[in-house]
């Protein structure tokens, strides 16, 4: 009997030791796995930080506030603008979409012409005024872009760009509610751009609201594919848009300076 109890005691002791060894093995394996995951996560975060320069961009000292406004704009877009633009794109014939886009583009040629003249680009300014005159008359109020077909190129210029051409610094990057990416200089110039928009400044009441809403929907519909590509490709959409906007504005202003010097 004592031998039997001795054997059982030995087996129990062996079993306990085996369980302890297994537990230690599992613990060491888990620790090793956690350590590898942690190392990989830290490396990924460091790579993201190096790539996006989050929190360290001298052009964006207001990044915390800007990201909050950016998130608001993203929410507004996801819940209202994008679905509306998708419906507009699906139910509106492409020829009508083109006509609507031409109409708003033609109206914008007036303010573009004014800014090109202010920048000293007289040739482009005259071209833009002529585009507006031709498209408004021969193009049925701007619904058809006759001028481009006739070899008169389309330009884009605004008052923020004009200020930049004349040496006004851009200031920090800012994100405006609804309007999106901007700089302090461009944000301060925005009210003047609204005044220069003949559809906005020369209409009132219901007409102003209707034209402004249709313009926003048309622009969002035309950007559906581009925005989808950005969302798929960008590691950080905010940083991507910030970089693209600042580079584009710098390119526009440098082009304006070169033409002014010529």
Describe this protein's structure.
The protein is mainly alpha-helical. It folds into two domains: 1-52; 63-261, no CATH class. It is built from eleven helices and two strands. The chain has helices at residues 2-52, 63-91, 94-118, 122-137, 146-149, 159-165, 184-196, 198-201, 205-222, 224-233, 237-261, and strands spanning 173-176, 180-183. A two-stranded antiparallel sheet has the order 1-2. β1 and β2 (180-183) form a beta hairpin. α3 runs antiparallel to α4 (122-137) and α6 (159-165) packs across α11 (237-261). The longest helix is centred in the N-terminal third of the chain and has 51 residues, at 2-52. The termini are far apart. Mean pLDDT is 83; it is low at 1-52.
Describe the secondary-structure layout.
Elements: H1 2-52, H2 63-91, H3 94-118, H4 122-137, H5 146-149, H6 159-165, E1 173-176, E2 180-183, H7 184-196, H8 198-201, H9 205-222, H10 224-233, H11 237-261
Antiparallel strand pairs: 1-2
Count of spatially separate domains: 2
**Structural class by sheet pairing and helices:** mainly alpha
> Could you give the distance between the termini?
112 Å
pLDDT averaged residue by residue: 83
Stretches where pLDDT is under 50 for at least 5 consecutive residues are 1-52
Strand order of the largest sheet: 1-2
Principal-axis shape equals: globular
Strand content: under 5%
User: Radius of gyration over alpha carbons?
Assistant: 30 Å
What is the number of E strands? 2
Please count the helical segments. Answer: 11
SSE pattern, N- to C-terminal: HHHHHHEEHHHHH
Q: Largest beta sheet, briefly? A: 2 strands, antiparallel
**Fraction of helical residues:** over 70%
């Amino acid at each position: 009997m004592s031998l039997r109890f001795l054997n059982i005691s030995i087996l129990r002791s062996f079993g306990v030791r085996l369980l302890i060894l297994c537990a230690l093995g599992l613990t060491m394996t888990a620790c090793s796995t956690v350590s590898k995951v942690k190392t990989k996560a830290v490396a990924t975060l460091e790579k993201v930080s190096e790539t996006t320069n989050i929190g360290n961009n001298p052009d964006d000292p207001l990044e915390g506030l800007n990201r909050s406004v950016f998130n608001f704009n993203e929410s507004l877009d996801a819940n209202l603008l994008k679905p509306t633009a998708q419906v507009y794109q699906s139910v509106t014939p492409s020829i009508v979409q083109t006509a609507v886009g031409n109409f708003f583009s033609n109206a914008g040629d007036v303010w573009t012409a004014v800014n090109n003249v202010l920048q000293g680009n007289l040739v482009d300014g005259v071209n833009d005024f002529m585009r507006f005159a031709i498209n408004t008359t021969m193009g049925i109020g701007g619904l058809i872009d006759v001028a481009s077909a006739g070899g008169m190129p389309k330009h884009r210029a605004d008052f923020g760009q004009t200020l930049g051409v004349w040496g006004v610094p851009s200031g920090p990057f800012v994100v405006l509610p609804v309007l999106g990416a901007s700089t302090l200089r461009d944000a301060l110039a925005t009210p003047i751009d609204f005044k220069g928009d003949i559809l906005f400044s020369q209409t009132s009441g219901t007409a102003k609201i209707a034209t402004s809403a249709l313009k926003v929907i048309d622009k969002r519909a035309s950007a559906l594919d581009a925005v989808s590509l950005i969302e798929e490709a960008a590691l950080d959409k905010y940083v991507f848009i910030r970089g693209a906007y600042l580079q584009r504005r710098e390119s526009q202003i440098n082009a304006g300076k070169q033409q002014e010097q010529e």
